[in-house]
Amino acid sequence: MSLRLLIVEDRRSLAQMLAETFAREGYEVTLAHRGDHAVAMLRDDGPFLAVLTDLKLPGADGLAVLAVAREVDPHLPVFLITAHASVDTAVAALKQGARDYFPKPLDLDRVLAAVAAAAAPRRALLAAPGAGEGLPELIGGAPAFLAAVAALRRVATTDATVLLEGPSGSGKELFAHALHRLSGRPSGPFVAFNCAAVPDSLVESELFGHERGAFTGATARHPGRFEQANRGTLFLDEVGEVPLPTQVKLLRVLEENRISRLGGEGEVEIDVRIVAATNRDLAVAVAGGTFRRDLFHRLRVFPIRLPSLAERREDIPVLALHLVGRAAARHGVLPPVLRPATLAVLVLAPWPGNVRELANTLERSAILAETGSLGPTELGIDAVACRSGLDDAATRVLAVRLAGGELDELARFLGVDVRRLER
User: Fold this and answer.
1) How far apart are CA 242 and CA 150, in angstroms?
2) What is the rounded CA–CA span in Å between residue 50 and residue 21?
3) Which of 64, 175, 236, 245 has the fewest Cβ atoms surrounding its Cβ within 10 A?
4) Which CATH number fits domain 4-127: 3.30.310.180, 3.40.50.1440, 3.90.930.60, 3.40.50.2300?
5) CATH fold of 143-305
6) Based on the number of CB atoms within 10 Å of its own CB, is 302 exposed (0-12), middle (13-18) or buried (19 or more)?
7) Cα Rg for the chain, rounded, in angstroms?
8) What is the band of 216 on the pLDDT scale with cuts at 50, 70, 90?
9) Parallel, antiparallel, or unpaired for β 373-374 and 337-338?
10) Are strands 190-194 and 162-165 parallel, antiparallel or unpaired?
11) Strand, helix or coil at 399?
C-alpha cells in the first residue's frame, strides 16, 4: 500500500527541504502550504501515513489541522512544528491528540526517527486484512504469527479438523471464527462451546443433547452443540478439559458423524467441521492418562500453534492501535493517541494474559482517558514488571525506537537511568 506523508508548511523553502528529506528516506510526500488546504486534503484525499504540520499557518492553524485529522482518522499520527515561543501551545496540543512536536530549528534526525516509529504500526494497521478477506482482527507481522495465519489460510477451505494450540488469551477463538469465514460453509452456523465452563456431569448433554425425561430437570428435548452446528463449524474450546468418559463418545461422533442424544433411542446424522483449541500440552495429558491418545490424534489432524504475545512483541504497537480504537468505538468515545513512551511501555510489559490482557488494559485506559492522549502512567501497568523487558536486547531496542523524543519520560516511568536504555 502506497501511503503519503502530508507536510503542511507555509515557508516553501522549508516545505521543499522536508519533502526532499523524507523522499530520500523512501516516503511518498504530499505538500500543502495552507492549513485550510490541508484540512480539505484530510477530508477528501486520505488515508495518509502521517501529518507533519507547522503550528502557524494561513487559512487554518496547526491545531485546526490536528482537530480535523482526529475527526476523520483518529489513528493518524500528527506531528507539530513550532517556534520556541509557541511551545506551551504545542504541549497543550499533545493533550488534544498530537503525537509529538518539534521546535525550530528542526533536529532532522529526531524528526525522521519519530515519524518512522509512528509510520511502522500505522502501515501495518492500514494493511491489515479487511472483513471481506475473513480475517478482520488477525493483525500482526511477526514471523511466528504470520506462519499461523498462513497455515490457517491453507486449511480453511478444507473440512479437516483443526487443533489450535497456544496459551490462554492468544486469539484462538478469533482464529476459529476466521477458519469458519474462509471455509466452504460460511453461511452455516458457528457454534462455540467452552469445555471447561460447565460441570463434568453436563458436558455430554451440552455436546450431544438430550431427550425429555433423560434426567431430573430434563423437561424438554434439547439439541446439543453438534446439532446446533449442523452444516457449520463447532468450536470446542479447552478441549483438553473434556472428561474421560465423554472423550469416548466424542471420538465416536468424530469418526462416524452421528450423535445419540441422552435418553434417545436413535441416532442423528450431522455434518459439522470441528475446530478444537487447547492451552494445555495434550501430548503430556495423553502420557498422564487424562486424555485419550486416539482422540488426540483424531483432533490433531491439522495443528496450528499460536504464539504468545511475548513471542511477537513487534506486533504490540499495531495491536495496541487496533485494540484501543475498537474499545473506543464500543464505548462511543474518541480513541486516545498512544504517546511514544506509552507504546514503548506496552512493548516492555510482560503480558502473561497475552492479547486478551492487552485488550483489557487498553479498553480500561480508553474509558478513563481524560485527554486526547495516553501517557505511560495512565495505563495502570507496573513499572517494575516492565523493567524486566529491558533484559532482552531486541525488546529494548524496539522500545527505545518507539519512545523517540520521549526517552527521558520512559526512563522516569521505569525508574532507570536513561543510559540503561541507550546502551
Assistant:
1) 29
2) 15
3) 245
4) 3.40.50.2300
5) Rossmann fold (3.40.50)
6) middle
7) 26
8) low
9) parallel
10) unpaired
11) helix
Q: Describe the crossing of helices 407-414 and 393-403 by its angle, rounded to 10 degrees.
A: 130
N-terminal to C-terminal alpha carbon distance within the chain:
35
Question: Which CATH class, in words, describes the domain spanning 309-422?
Answer: mainly alpha
Q: Which letter does DSSP use for residue 257 in this model? A: S
Q: Output the CA–CA distances (angstroms, integers) from residue 352 to 29, 80, 310, 316, 364, in the order listed.
A: 41, 37, 8, 14, 17
What the block records as the C-alpha cell of 367 is 474509558
- Calculated CA dihedral for residues 402, 408, 413, 414, nearest 10 degrees: 80
Residue 209: its pLDDT value, please?
84
Return the C-alpha cell found at 410: 520512559
| All structural domains of the chain with their residue ranges | 4-127, 143-305, 309-422
Q: What is the pTM of this model?
A: 0.88
Asked whether this chain's domains 4-127 and 143-305 adopt the same fold, the reply is yes
The interaxial angle of helices 316-331 and 108-127, nearest 10 deg, is 70
Helix (H, G, I), strand (E, B) or coil at 12: helix
Q: Angle at which helices 108-127 and 340-348 pack, to 10 degrees?
A: 60
How far apart CA 201 and CA 11 sit, in angstroms, is 75
Strand boundaries in 212-292, DSSP class E: 232-237, 258-259, 268-269, 272-278
Q: How many CB atoms lie within 10 A of CB 244?
A: 12
The shares of helix, strand and coil residues in the chain, as percent rounded to the nearest 5, are: 50, 15, 35
Element (H, E) at 203: helix 200-208
Supply 340's cell numbers.
511514544
Q: Spell out where 171-320 has E strands.
A: 190-194, 232-237, 258-259, 268-269, 272-278, 302-305
pLDDT tens sequence across 35-58: 999 999 999 998 999 999 999 999
